[in-house]
Specification:
This protein has 186 residues and is an all-alpha fold. It has a single domain, classed as de novo design (two linked rop proteins) (Up-down Bundle). Helix content is 76%, strand content 0%. It is built from 6 helices and no strands. α1 packs across α6. It is rod-shaped and about 90 Å long. The model has no long low-confidence stretch (mean pLDDT 87).
Length: 186
């Protein structure tokens, strides 16, 4: 009888361990999915930038520095595609600020503000910035859930045994970088 009770306890503990393991796998996959969502939106923004720059080049002949900075930061953002969330956030934050400066300078060109191509790109960029913000929220929520599970007892025992680890949040350190570029030309 004692052997049967011991066997039942062992089976229950094993099943609980399997349940915790599967939960950790699910949370890790949600973190990966969240990061993929951010990556897709950042790629979409990077793809919009060359067309946006082409539409403003003819109008903004005296703003070469701003155009070159956006181009340079876009290249850095693309080359940082495999970087950690912390490193990627720094690069993408700088690109967001440069885009904000570009769009602020465009305010000085009334004929540019009336250009339909520019307006289309401006609207697409605004939508993309909103999607990036939503993707960041999802990712950071998935990271929070993963990190709580990885660090909480008893799931931390399973996490440590099978190599599950905490994930990094996608945070922007510079408070000015947190602001979404103003893309309104009304």
């Amino acid at each position: 009888m004692t052997g049967m009770i011991l066997l039942i306890i062992i089976v229950v503990v094993a099943l609980y361990g399997v349940m915790l393991y599967n939960r950790l796998v699910k949370l890790r996959q949600m973190v990966s999915e969240g990061w993929s969502g951010i990556d897709v939106q950042l790629k979409r923004r990077a793809d919009l930038i060359p067309n946006l720059l082409e539409s403003v080049k003819g109008y903004m002949t005296h703003e070469r520095e701003v155009l070159e900075e956006v181009t340079r930061l876009r290249g850095q953002a693309q080359s940082a595609s495999n970087a950690s969330p912390e490193e990627r956030a720094k690069v993408e934050g700088a690109l967001s600020m440069a885009l904000g400066r570009l769009l602020a300078v465009a305010e000085n060109y009334p004929e540019l503000k009336a250009n339909q191509n520019f307006l289309d790109f401006q609207n697409a960029l605004e939508e993309t910035e909103n999607e990036i913000q939503l993707s960041r929220r999802y990712y950071n929520g998935a990271v929070r859930n993963n990190n709580v599970a990885v660090e909480s007892f008893p799931s931390n025992l399973i996490a440590g045994q099978f190599g599950f680890s905490s994930a990094q949040y996608f945070e922007i350190e510079n408070a000015a970088d947190r602001e979404v570029p103003k893309v309104s030309f009304s």
